[in-house]
Structures are given as structure tokens and as C-alpha cells.
Amino acid sequence: MLNLAIGCAVDVEGRSCISTGPKTKGHAVYGPYEAHDAGDYAVQFIMEPLADAAALKPDALCAIIDVTSNGGNDLHASQRIVAADFAGGRTRFLLPFSTQRRTALEFRVWVSGKLPLLIDDYRQLISRIDGADEQTLLERARFPSEEGARLPFFAERHDLFRSFYERGCLVRIEGDAIVLTVRGISFFVRNDDDLNFVGEVFFDNIYNFQHDRPVCAIDIGMNIGFSSLQFATKDEVREVHSFEPFRGTYDRALANIFLNGSVGRKISHHNFGLADRNWSGEVLAAQTGNSGAMSTVDAGQGTPIQVSVRDAGEVLGPIIESARERGLDVIVKMDCEGSEYAICESLIRNDLLRHITAFMVEWHAIFGDKSQADLTGPLREAGFLIFDRSPPSGNGFFYAANLGASPRAS
Q1: How far apart are CA 377 and CA 182, in angstroms?
Q2: Overall domain count for the chain
Q3: How far apart are CA 85 and CA 16, in angstroms?
Q4: Which of 108, 167, 175, 357 pairs with 399 at a CA distance of 20 to 30 A?
Q5: Number of Cβ atoms within 10 Å of the Cβ of 328
Q6: Residue 56 is part of which domain span?
Q7: Comparing 175 with 288, which gets the higher pLDDT?
Q8: Are 150 and 72 members of one domain?
């Protein structure tokens, strides 16, 4: 946030900045008052002198950067910025700090008025969980405009990547690959559907459940692994079982999982789909997007692809039984391009619905005679409370919570 009583708002190559004048003193930048969990962090401030800093004494105070909470009453860290710090012109400053509890933080820049400054409004926050040194943290915090310019996919979507960056997403270029990191989860981005998934999973939080008990998460339709990784970062999630039938998509998920070290090791991944029978063969996939999200339901035309599917009840029964024996609640996410109806039938046939704590389901209008009612009806009969977010027509989404699930000792 910019204090326009201190300076003028300007746009510099898509960056929102404030230009401060001489002899104007006060907090030029403040906010954003966003809540963050307890932990070790560093925040990046970017400033550029608009006059010759060398004309001042090297130790002349030009600005103070700080991290506060509680309306500025609790100070977590601060640093004096003097004229000598601007010897290189535009400069990035990294301020490390720690918090002991979840709190809304404010990153401020106070200016003395001795040196006119151009200050970026956006201040990137970086986790210090791995004890990286200052230079490494600065490199992580930097937006890679120059390196990205040589990659057509990045260059053509520069503003979109910048918008993700300014929503807290770290962006880096590795060779010809683009890697994003959101809330500690890293993944490759290769096409437009990937970018759509970033918004759905990490910003819209469509699968971001919270639970006060230990959880076994089941991800049916893993795609490229975003939701599985989000589940695995949760302390309450002890294990994730993920299913993806299409080899190319599965391999992309593995690449993302392997980027994430110990988090990725929570995930048991399987290169087969789930349905109401065991079957292997060729399906014609009508691929409507470039994400790899395809259906094991034969489209009648399209690209022939070899897949394997297994009976959902037979596969999930032992997983659910083992989880329950160890005191884990079972939460199921399903986005499987039309196979959700067959999966539901198998779960009913194997009497598994009552052992599942919650569902998060994207259903698909792939069959003219089926809708979410074919899924929510049996769940309601089994004692689930349904939260249906489906539109009047087309595909939809619902959540279901098992009201009959009784607390058990962990």
C-alpha cells in the first residue's frame, strides 16, 4: 500500500511504485496486513535513488525498513538504510525475521526525505525454513524478467506470471523450464492449463481442507500433482494415495513430487485409474485441454491411449481399513473426468462410504442421463451433509461431510 501523502504513485514496467520527494518524511509504503503462520521468514524491499546518493554523507539516514504487527505496536525486525547502501543504484534489501504465532504482518518503508526514492509497492516474502544464506534468498525473491524473456511461453504471459509473483508466488527459470513455488510447494509450469490449476488449487483453495485429526488423503485424478502436494504439506495429513491413469500426466506429476523432498515422500502414487472393474486396454481420448486431463471413458473418437483401471472398492478398501485401524480419518478428492459415477458405485458395493470422513468432488456432465444427484443421493442416504457448488448446467463441484463419523483416539 502506498502513502500518497508522502509521494506519487507511478507504474514502472508493470510494477506499482511510489516516488518520494525531497524533505518529505514518513511511511511511504505500509501493509499488507496479511496473516502468516509462525516461522522464520525474510521480506524483500526494492528501492532506487532518484538523485545522486553520493552527494550525501555515506552514513546519512535515507530510510528504515521494518516488519511489524498489531497496528505497528509489535516490532519483529528493522534495518536502517543509509546513502552508502545505494551505491549500486536500484537495490534489493532483505530483512529476516521470525514470528512465534500466526499473525497479520505489515512491511513498512519509512523515508527521511534526505534522498528521493522510487520504492516498489510489492514486497516478496520468503520462507527461511531451510536456513539458506542471504544471497540465495535474494535470488529466490527476484522476479526473473530477463531470463524469462528468452522463453516464448514466459514472455507471452509475462504479466500473468508477474501477477502470480505479486500474490506471493516465487518464480524461477531452470534451463528451459519455469518453476513456481507457492506456500512452500514447487512445481513446473509448461502450459496454460497448468496456470489455471495454480489459480484453482493455490489461490481459490478449492481443496484446502482443515481438520484437527490425523488424515489419510486419497487423490483420485492426481493430474500433475498439485492437489496431492497441497495435501502433503498439511501437518494433519500423514499419507496421500494418488491415482492417475495417463502415463504422460503421471510422469509430470512425478517430476513435481520429486521437486518437494520430504513433502513428496508422503505421497504414494499409482499409474492407474479407478472405476467399478479391473480393465486394461486402449481408449480414444478426446483431449480438450493441454494439461493432460483426460477421461478413461472412451470418447468414441480422438487419440488412442493405453490405460489401466482397477476396481475402486478393491483398491481403496485395504487403504481405508489400514487408515482407520491407525486412527486416521479418510478424506477423498475426486476429479476423474466422468469415472466418478463408476467409482461411487464400487464404493457403495464394497460398503466403504460410511468409513470415509469427507469428499471433495468435481463431477462431469459426460453422460446425458447422469448428474451430481447420482453421487450426492447415495451420500445423503449414508449420512453425509452436502455442499453443492454446481452451476445450473455443465460440470460442477460439491463437498460432502460425513455427519455419522464418530471421533476416535489417534
Answers
A1: 36
A2: 3
A3: 22
A4: 167
A5: 23
A6: 7-141
A7: 175
A8: no
Q: How far apart are CA 78 and CA 382, in angstroms?
A: 56
Domain shared by 216 and 270, yes or no: yes
Q: Are 120 and 152 in contact (CB under 8 A)?
A: no
Model pLDDT for residues 194-240, shown as the tens digit of each residue? 998 898 999 999 999 999 999 999 999 999 999 999 999 999 999 99
CA-wise closest residue to 222 among 212, 207, 235, 203? 207
**pLDDT reading at 68 higher than 90:** yes
**Which CATH number does the domain housing residue 40 bear?**
2.60.120.260
* Beta-sheet strand order (sheet of 303-311): 273-275, 303-311, 279-285
Which residue intervals of 333-405 are DSSP H helices? 340-349, 373-381
Same-domain status, 227 and 361 = yes
Q: Whole-angstrom Cα distance, residue 188 to residue 238?
A: 25
Beta-strand (E) ranges in 5-102? 7-12, 15-20, 26-29, 32-36, 39-49, 61-69, 74-82, 91-99
β-bridge partners, 220 = 243, 334
